[in-house]
Design goal:
Elements lengths: L5 E3 H11 L4 E4 L6 H9 L3 E4 L3 H15 L3 E5 L3 H16 L3 E7 L2 H5 L10 H5 L5 E5 L5 H13 L5 E7 H5 L1 E3 H7 L14 H12 L4 E5 L1 H5 L3 H11 L3 E3 L19 H7 L2 E5 L20 E6 L13 E4 L2 H11 L9 H23 L7 H13 L5 E5 L2 H9 L8 E3 L9 H12 L3 E6 H7 L3 H6 L4 E7 L24 H6 L4 E5 L2 H14 L3 E6 L23
Parallel strand pairs: 2-3, 2-4, 4-5, 5-7, 6-7, 9-10, 9-11, 11-12, 12-13, 14-15, 14-16, 16-17, 17-19, 18-19
Antiparallel strand pairs: 1-8
Helix pairs in contact: 1-2, 1-7, 3-4, 3-18, 10-14, 12-14, 16-17, 16-22
This protein binds adenosine-5'-diphosphate and magnesium ion.
């Protein structure tokens, strides 16, 4: 009698990933997933191995943002899973589709708390941080587990999904035929969501009466790849627009209708605002005064109906996917139905020019040592000629100055601290940007921010990725002028030579102290396509505590 061909959980998992077009996975090897990674690699899936799960998770999350396919991160059980959890939570918060797949130890021992290796009830822990969470206990269920994870990650408002795979599941054998039958490729996992015609009429009506309309673009619009619809809406209606930081480049920052350089004026005076894939969260002062006018009325385009009225009443909610919604809106807008408000446009234009002139002056100044403006002014000059470069940006002052100074020309080319203002996304995002797009990446990092993921420069060197990291080194968190006694809570080693770190792994390091050599080093890094790190020494007194969000930092009344 012929024996039935058999397979095992490892193979089913890899087959399921391949069937669903997952061509890249990010992770850290170890028990019980090492063989899974080996097998995936031998089956043609690209595996990028990291030094810490948080960075691998961040890479997967931003891969999801860039591609609309869930980024996949694989971790070991227990602490490895916990390390990945920050990234999962951050992905959910930012609406990035990712799947964190973690191996876990023996269910029966975990459930009785009998003390297994890395024993942890991972599924329960992951739930509050994810959009959905599943566990697979049998190899026959791997297919359905992955299919549901994919659908949960990308449908509606995207988010992070946790998929728990027990070690036993991976090692179990099953009938090959049963395995083949168990695989699922979800049909249309992120279907279009067409807004109701009434919601569109309401929006058009509100817009047609607006005296000072404004369009606010958020990273939801960038994720939705709605650049064509956004451009048409902005240009046909002549309404000024304001990009949130990761929506920069959806339309070029030098677009005549950009109100970015007149942000406070535009937000404070607008009477009707169209929010397109942007939430009225803390980044927009919850829609409240003094940033906003009390009487401002909102049209909000969002795929998630529960986002409406979260902070301010939404007069015209448009619930749908952004591309379908903007298309419907454009179709309903007859020529002239939104009157051109020249006075408003002129007022914004004037304010903008004043601010741009002031900024140009700051960028022209060339102090010794460099400060944030002069250093980033050089980075700006180099990047103006290279719109293809992906920009990753994190820090406090490095982020605030970077966002304002570095212009973006192409959609989804700016990847930054996002909704939480999180530190630690730098190297993970940079690696995934390079891996997913094949394009050069510049990571503009505060010296403190860099420290959270800095070890991944080994990963960048190992995979020979075209990433140039620029560290704006002022020797501390916020700034580095912290005195000579015991190290202060915000200070680091003075004159730290981060450039030597990358040399340890075969990359190219530059130590620069003036704008000219900074520009040269950046050009060399971008030109070579080699892993490069530029330690840009700036004034330790440059920068302010907490950057632009000092108001969020309570100060002790008793502190002198
Ligand atoms: P930002 O930080 O740039 O303001 P947010 O992350 O706060 O942006 O908001 C993004 C919004 O976009 C979320 O409310 C999310 O539900 C929404 N969104 C994401 N993808 C889509 C899509 N394809 N269509 C419609 N809305 C989307
Ligand atoms: Mg610093």
């Amino acid at each position: 009698m012929e024996s039935t061909p058999m397979t095992d959980g490892f193979h089913v998992m890899v087959d399921a990933l391949k069937l669903n077009g997952i061509d890249t996975i990010y992770g850290v090897a170890g028990i019980p997933i090492t063989d899974l990674l080996r097998l995936a690699q031998s089956e043609g899936i690209r595996y990028i191995g990291f030094r810490h799960e948080q960075n691998a998770g961040n890479a997967a999350a931003i891969a999801g943002f860039l591609t609309q396919k869930p980024g996949v991160c694989l971790t070991v059980s227990g602490p490895g899973f916990l390390n990945g959890l920050v990234a999962l939570a951050n992905a959910t918060t930012n609406c990035f589709p990712m799947i964190l797949i973690s191996g876990s130890s023996d269910r029966s021992i975990i459930d009785l708390q009998q003390g297994d290796y890395e024993e942890l009830d991972q599924l329960s822990i992951a739930k509050p941080f994810s959009k959905a969470a599943f566990r697979v206990n049998n190899p026959e269920d791997i297919g359905v587990g992955l299919a549901r994870s994919i659908r949960a990650a990308v449908s509606g408002r995207p988010g992070g999904v946790y998929l728990d795979i027990t070690a036993k599941t991976l090692g179990s054998v099953l009938d090959l035929k049963a395995s083949e039958r168990s695989l699922i490729r979800p049909v249309d996992p992120a279907p279009r969501q067409i807004p109701s015609p009434e919601s569109i009429s309401r929006a058009v009506q509100l817009l047609s009466g607006a005296l000072r309309p404004l369009i606010v673009l958020g990273k939801g619009a960038a994720y939705a790849q709605a650049e064509v619809e956004v451009k048409t809406l902005v240009e046909e209606t002549h309404i000024p627009f304001l990009p949130m930081s990761m929506a920069k480049g959806l339309l070029p920052d030098n677009h005549p209708q950009s109100a970015a350089a007149a942000r406070s004026y535009a937000l404070g005076n607008a009477d009707v605002v169209v929010l397109v894939g942007a939430r009225l969260n803390w980044l927009l002062s919850h829609g409240k005064s003094p940033l906003w006018s009390e009487s401002c009325q909102y049209i909000q385009v969002d795929i998630d109906s529960t986002e409406m009225d979260s902070n301010r009443p939404i007069v015209a909610p448009v619930v749908g996917d952004i591309r379908s919604s903007l298309r419907a809106l454009l179709q309903a807008l007859k020529p002239g139905s939104v009157p051109v408000r020249s006075e408003w446009l002129d007022a914004i234009g004037e304010k903008k020019q004043k601010n741009l002139n002031r900024m140009a002056e700051r960028l022209r100044a060339n102090p010794d040592p460099m400060n944030f403006s002069s250093a980033l002014g050089q980075v700006r000059e180099v990047l103006l000629a290279r719109p293809d470069v992906y920009v990753v940006n994190e820090g406090a002052n490095a982020l605030d100055f970077g966002r304002n100074i570095i212009d973006m020309n192409l959609p989804r080319h700016r990847l930054d601290s996002g909704t939480w203002g999180i530190m630690g996304i730098g190297m993970g995002y940079a690696i995934a940007a390079a891996v997913e797009t094949g394009q050069p990446v510049v990571a503009i990092e505060g010296d403190s921010a860099f420290g959270f993921s800095g070890m991944e420069i080994e990963t960048i060197c190992r995979y020979k990725l075209p990433v140039t990291t620029v560290i704006l080194n002022n020797g501390g968190i916020y700034r580095g002028d912290t005195g000579d006694g015991e190290p202060s809570p915000t200070g680091f080693v003075r004159d730290a030579r981060y450039d030597k770190l990358i040399e340890a792994f075969g990359g190219v390091g530059y130590h620069v102290t003036n704008t000219e050599s900074l520009a040269q080093a950046l050009q060399a890094g971008l030109g070579s396509g080699r892993p490069t790190l530029i330690n840009a020494v700036i004034d330790p007194t440059a920068g302010t505590e907490s950057g632009h969000i000092q108001s969020l930092n309570p100060k002790s009344a008793l502190h002198q």
